[in-house]
Amino acid sequence: MKAEHYVGGVFRSDGPAFPLVAPADGTEMGAVPEATREVVDDAVTAAQAALVGPWGATGVEERAATLRRIADGIQARFEEFVDAEVADTGKPRELASTVDIPRAIGNFRAYAELLYGRPERAYTTQIPGWSAGAGQALNYTVRRPLGVVAVISPWNLPLLLLTWKVAPALAAGNAVVAKPSEETPLTATLLAQVIDQAGLPSGAFNLVHGHGAGAAGEFLTGHPGVDAIAFTGESATGAAIMRNAADHVTPVSFELGGKNPALVFADADLDAAVDGTVRSSFTHSGQICLCTERVYVERPVFEEFVARLAERARALDGYGPMISAEHRDKVLSYYRLAREEGAEVVAGGGVPSFGDARDGGFYVEPTVLTGLPETARTVREEIFGPVCHVAPFDTEDEALRLANDSPYGLASTVWTRDLSRAHRVAPRVQTGIVWVNCWNLRDLRTPFGGVKASGIGREGGEYSLDFFSEPVNVCIQI
Ligand code: NAD
Ligand code: 6OD
């Protein structure tokens, strides 16, 4: 299959092309069209037209039915979506077919259901109300869509994270212009085909491909016709988008980077904590924003935990590559830096050799480090690879101080059997999400997002619908 733009209900491939490289073996898979400023303009114009056309007039039932048809359409082409996601990312097929594609379907289904539960028009009423100096009034609140929403998504969970924003944006009645990562254009193109078949009015969903800085991403986020930006990606990119959006005071919802801590207390079920940390540090080769890169372990179980985690890391096989040669080099540069900073490399630390086509791909070994001071760059900066640093602690307060001493605050994991400790510690960890005795267990209605440099705002359930719509007060004097 080939990547195409989808603008105003029409597939097109104009703009210069750039190569699409398979991370699994380094081969060239095809070419991707790079959206020019004109293509982005066309997409925004098509979205604006959809809002004053049939899409702007659709009611809740019709929107929910459309979302369900999109979910059905992805389901019907499930294997094609899995193939495309595996080709683009190199991730294990099992991961794409149990997480990425089912969650994309789930995103559309969840927002179809949530729309039904939400009183869209008569949001609040006051009869009679009180208004300063003007006697009695009837006040009610109408929620209306923001308009044209730009959705910018990353390469690590390409379809999951794209649909995580597209579904609620459409549910709330907006028109969307989406730009997926330049590294992973294929499932987004399949999604456009499904949406086309699902009968969404032309222009309600548009897709443009291309790079970020100085290219399609920047053209889109600085466009005067864009009314809101929903972005997932690196914190530094978020800052650049914010600067670009400032000229038009465009509202943003940001899901950004992390340096996520795990706290393992001595009373924890150590089997579960080791299993959980293997998952939280090494799933998708650490390329999930929620992955653990800092593990703090209470001293009585520190040695045993490190030994068991390292053994499991060494035994991992069937894992996927880094997304690109550039990202592999970045991760390897941190493996080198860790050594220079004085780390003990307890497992991994290099490039695996397979003796097959994968040797042309962008693989790095799952890696466990110890012995670094908290000031080390390896402990402070997001690496986004299969690597964690493990350090001991002696008291609950020290564990919290270490966990919270970070510019980031996305997700954390607490391992303990002590219920009181879990309730005491969880609210004090400065992250937007705290998992206790589990990791990445998701209910799509819960608030999702980060504090500090990890994001602005919350997505998920009602939180997304709130971001993608605005309340309007109607006041009638009685
Ligand atoms: P990235 O920031 O490099 O790119 C993300 C998207 O932004 C891509 O589509 C890219 O083309 C675009 N982009 C880049 N520069 C831009 C600019 N100046 N203007 C407009 N668009 C621009 O991120 P990535 O490398 O694709 O993804 C990995 C990062 O994303 C990690 O930092 C990870 O933690 C973060 N992430 C966060 C979450 C979350 O939910 N908090 C989820 C996934 C990934
Ligand atoms: O599960 C989700 O809803 C979500 N937004 C996950 C983000 C993962 C980051 O890589």
What does this 3D model show about the protein?
The model has no long low-confidence stretch (mean pLDDT 96). The protein has 2 domains: 5-256 and 454-477, Aldehyde Dehydrogenase, Chain A, domain 1, CATH 3.40.605.10; 260-443, 3-Layer(aba) Sandwich (Aldehyde Dehydrogenase, Chain A, domain 2), CATH 3.40.309.10. With 478 residues, it is of the alpha/beta class. The N and C termini lie far apart (62 Å). The chain has 15 helices and 22 strands. The chain has a 7-stranded mixed β-sheet with strand order 14-15-16-13-12-18-19, sandwiched between helices. A 6-stranded mixed β-sheet has the order 9-8-7-10-11-21, sandwiched between helices. Helix 2 (60-76) packs across helix 6. Strand 1 (5-7) and strand 2 form a beta hairpin. The radius of gyration is 23 Å and the shape is globular. Bound molecules: nicotinamide-adenine-dinucleotide and (2E,4E)-2-amino-6-oxohexa-2,4-dienoic acid (6OD). Residues 156-157, 161, 164, 288-290, 442, 448 line the site of (2E,4E)-2-amino-6-oxohexa-2,4-dienoic acid (6OD).
